[in-house]
Amino acid sequence: MTRSLKKGPYVDVKLAKKVAARKPNAGPIKTWARASQIPPEFVGYTFGVHNGKSHEEVYVTEDMVGHRLGEFSPTTKFIRHGGKMQKEAEMAAKAAEIATAQAAKATTAAAPKK
């Protein structure tokens, strides 16, 4: 459910003050306000958005206006799905990569030198 239009977008007051007091190239602005929406005034600034463990640097562009800061700093890290099928697929991909590398090496070795 979206925020009421009469209330306007939620922008963290402390964060807005920090942005007003800094220049865009002065380094990242550390924040824990993941719920804060990105207004047009934030464009060009780099924010260190906390993801629960560390601060992820997020450079704000025009396309991000209206979104929330937390959307660009994921809190979970996907490693991969496991299992026998995944392992077999990885081995097949690695074997194919080795075969193409050997084929490329063989064609460069067979080419006459000038």
Can you characterise this structure?
There is one protein chain. A hairpin with a 4-residue loop joins strand 2 and strand 3. The chain contains two helices and three strands, in the order H-E-E-E-H. The protein starts with 12 loop residues before the first helix and ends with a helix. It has 114 residues and is α+β, with helices and mostly antiparallel strands. The relative contact order is 0.11. The mean pLDDT is 89. Strands 1-2-3 form a three-stranded mixed beta sheet, covered by helices on one side. The chain has two domains: 13-72, 2-Layer Sandwich (30s Ribosomal Protein S19, Chain A); 79-109.
Instruction: Report strand %.
Output: 5-15%
Largest sheet: 3 strands, mixed
Helix content: 25-40%
Amino- and carboxy-terminal Cα gap: 70 Å
| CATH topology call of the largest domain | 30s Ribosomal Protein S19, Chain A
Category by helix and strand content: alpha+beta
Form type: elongated
How many extended strands?
3
CATH class of the largest domain: Alpha Beta
CATH architecture of the largest domain: 2-Layer Sandwich
SSE map:
Layout: H1 13-21, E1 29-31, E2 46-50, E3 55-59, H2 84-110
Parallel strand pairs: 1-2
Antiparallel strand pairs: 2-3
